[in-house]
């Protein structure tokens, strides 16, 4: 539950410890009431809107969620799809309480495009609009992930909404982390005194007659990111959901997928050593261990400078924590171009690269993602084999 990247390692932790007993009492009481109200709301049909809304408002009050909504005049009663960014585990409850929408749709509910479209087709016949999180997973609130290409499959116009979540008290306790799960985020929601949600309704965005899905989604994503003053990251939800431990394991296996995971397989490179000094058959020193940890992180993020990684590892002393901080954007750096490998240190993989490359470049993001998932296992297995061959050749 206490993820290292959820709160900073400074004096503010003292205040969190002092607040701990109060937070635990709130957590237990809120969890008990939340489970009962959520169970009741689940069995109440959508057409009992007033009762369902009262229960959701009770959940919001019990969980300490304060909501402010602006731009209600932009809300269209004829629109059937509401699109929003995803910043916390309680977004669906907050938006359901404020706007009275149907069940939200994300990767956790409908993992495939076909299941989503089938569900949307049945839901669009109802009076209430559908809530869609096109990122398909919770982001860190500092950037937008890539949107899925399902947004305009059911309707040619959508209602964009932006949502911001802050914690005025204990604000340094983050809403989510890269390695946390939904239950962990929910328990921290119950632990803190309250969370403030600021909802802003944007004008309806329509897809032009001759406009492609990709261009319409790009316009939608740009409008939401500008309203939030956020950057747009070229990361899909499948990449974001990789925990720091999974990324570290890929680095150990030789699969380096920081910027372009579907095309590159890079073998780990051992740190350069001074040839004038003979190796010692003793336990690795602190500098050696630090250099190895730096190399592990740099294998995952070759664009991050060596000294920046070394400086952060000297503080965290943990590869997972440093990787998580880089993913969350908490480490500032100037990207560098990774050095090219020499012929002596490079394992020849070019003859086999064609075995794993896609014959045709997918026209849509879903086709490219499917191609990536199909080739991922083959890439990992090939990287492991090459890495073992490299170790065997060096031992000889």
Summarize the structure.
With 396 residues, the protein is of the alpha/beta class.
Describe this structure in words.
Helix content is 45%, strand content 10%. The chain is α/β, with parallel strands linked by helices and 396 residues long. It has 2 domains: 4-239, no CATH class; 242-270 and 285-395, Ubiquitin-associated (UBA) domain (Helicase, Ruva Protein, domain 3, Orthogonal Bundle), CATH 1.10.8.10. The strands form 2 sheets. Strands 1, 2, 3, 4, 6, 7 and 8 form a 7-stranded mixed beta sheet that branches. A two-stranded parallel sheet has the order 5-9. Helix 1 runs antiparallel to helix 2 (49-62). It starts with 11 loop residues before the first helix and ends with a helix. Residues 234-245, 254-284 and 341-357 have low confidence and may be disordered.
């Amino acid at each position: 539950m206490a993820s290292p990247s959820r709160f900073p390692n400074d004096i503010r932790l003292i205040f969190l410890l002092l607040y701990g007993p109060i937070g635990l009492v709130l957590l237990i009481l809120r969890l008990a009431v939340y489970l009962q109200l959520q169970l009741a709301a689940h069995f109440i049909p959508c057409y009992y809107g007033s009762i369902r809304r009262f229960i959701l408002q009770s959940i919001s009050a019990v969980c300490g969620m304060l909501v402010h909504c602006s731009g209600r005049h932009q809300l269209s009663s004829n629109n059937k799809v509401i699109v929003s960014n995803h910043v916390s585990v309680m977004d669906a409850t907050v938006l359901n309480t404020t706007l009275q929408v149907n069940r939200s749709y994300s990767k956790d509910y409908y993992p495939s495009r076909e299941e989503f479209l089938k569900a949307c087709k049945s839901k669009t016949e109802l009076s209430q609009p559908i809530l869609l999180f096109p990122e398909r997973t919770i982001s860190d609130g500092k950037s937008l992930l890539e949107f899925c290409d399902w947004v305009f499959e059911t309707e040619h116009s959508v209602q964009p909404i932006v949502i911001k979540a802050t914690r005025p008290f204990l604000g340094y306790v983050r809403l989510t982390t890269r390695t946390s799960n939904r239950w962990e985020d929910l328990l921290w929601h119950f632990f803190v005194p309250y969370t403030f949600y600021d909802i802003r309704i944007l004008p309806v965005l329509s897809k032009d007659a001759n406009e492609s899905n990709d261009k319409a989604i790009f316009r939608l994503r740009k409008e939401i990111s500008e309203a939030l003053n956020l950057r747009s990251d070229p990361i899909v939800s499948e990449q974001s959901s990789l925990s720091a431990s999974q990324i570290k394991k890929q680095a150990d296996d030789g699969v380096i997928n920081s910027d372009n995971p579907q095309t590159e397989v890079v073998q780990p490179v051992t740190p350069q050593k001074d040839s004038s000094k003979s190796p010692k058959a003793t336990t690795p020193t602190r500098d050696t261990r630090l250099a190895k940890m730096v190399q592990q992180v740099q294998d995952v993020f070759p664009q991050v400078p060596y000294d920046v990684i070394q400086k952060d590892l000297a503080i965290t002393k943990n590869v997972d924590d440093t990787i998580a901080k880089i993913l969350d954007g908490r480490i500032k750096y100037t990207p560098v171009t990774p050095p090219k490998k020499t012929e002596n240190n490079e394992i020849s993989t070019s003859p086999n690269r064609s075995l794993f490359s896609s014959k045709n470049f997918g026209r849509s993001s879903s086709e490219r993602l499917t191609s990536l998932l199909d080739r991922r296992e083959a890439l990992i297995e090939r990287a492991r084999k090459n890495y073992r061959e490299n170790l065997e050749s060096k031992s000889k």
